[in-house]
Amino acid sequence: MKRKSPVSKVVYYVVMIVLSFFMVLPLFWMITTSLKDTGALTAIPIEWIPKKVTFDSFRKLFEIFPFGKAFLNSVIVSVSITIVNVFSACMAAYVFAKIPFKGRELLFGIFLVTMMIPGSVTLIPNYLILRSFHLLNSYLGLILPSFFNIFGIFMLRQSMRQIPDDFIDAAVIDGASQWRIFFNVIIPLSRPMIATLFVITFMGAWNDYLWPLIVLTDKSKMTLPVALSMLNGQYSTEYNLLMAGALISIVPIIIVYAFAQRYFEEGLTAGGLKG
After folding, report:
1. pTM of the model
2. Lower Cβ count inside 10 Å, N or C end of the chain?
3. CB atoms within 10 A of CB 243
4. What is the C-alpha to C-alpha distance for residues 127 and 117, in angstroms, rounded to an integer?
């Protein structure tokens, strides 16, 4: 294997440092802006580091707006969607990967075709279905369309197909049922990919703006992205409030990723190597 020259290493690290700087810069600006008072927002030149650090924007955020309620709503909706979505994807992937039946590949191919349909096309049909069942303006109406995730089923199926059938055959010989095989054999061996899907699904549900905006009409049930959009004024915007809200909104994603980081990285590596 050819070793890299010292010059190429230096160039590589310089490029990575520059790219990292530009990636971290927006986050740094968001943090410093949330710690500024209203006067410092329009200061010329720009105060990258505020001369006077204040947490008034965080306090004001919870005083003028039911931000805490919106945060709790997002937690309830995102966790519910993630758990239901991942569990249903695991069951469907197990069937398509390990349980042979007539027409299995054809049915899975039909499932894959639905991935080509843009989400915007199904917005109106989903809305009309929920309205006919009187599920508008409810948490259940937000969660129901996310019960099945074709991408998640596809990703987990590819992972489960790598599990040797000998493990399942041994469990069958020991008298294990399909449910026991699923929970005691398949799920433990698929943890990296399940963790990857968990993080991706949670991020998508947490950041979803359009569907909650369409379904929910009660302000007490609005989710965090919708609440953040209401901080944008018609004529002016208090960016310290907006950045404070955005900063709080990324905390759950960081926590989820921190807990699932090891499995998440293993899942991405496995997906990249095995396809």
Report:
1. 0.81
2. N
3. 21
4. 16
Side-chain half-sphere of 10: how many Cα atoms within 13 Å?
3
Q: Tell me the CB-side half-sphere exposure of residue 201, using CA atoms within 13 A.
A: 30
| CA distances, 2 to each of 5, 40, 129 (Å) | 9, 53, 61
- For residue 22 the two structure tokens come to 């530009």
| Residue boundaries of the structural domains of the chain | 1-54, 61-274
Across the chain, the runs of DSSP E, i.e. the strands, are none
- What does the angle CA 202 – CA 151 – CA 262 come to, to the nearest 5 degrees? 50
Tokens standing for residue 218: 């009660």
Mean pLDDT value across residues 233-255: 79
Fold classification of 61-274 (topology level): MetI-like fold (1.10.3720)
Q: How many helices (H) and strands (E) does the chain have?
A: 15, 0
Q: What is the pLDDT of residue 265?
A: 62
Q: What is the dihedral of CA 163, 165, 168, 169, to 10 degrees?
A: -160
- On whether the CB atoms of residues 158 and 96 are closer than 8 A, the answer is no
What is the C-alpha separation between 242 and 41, in angstroms, rounded? 12
Residues in CB range of 206: below 8 A, 6 or more apart: 74, 78, 224, 249, 252, 253
How do residues 186-218 score in pLDDT, each as one tens digit? 998 888 888 889 888 998 999 999 999 999 888
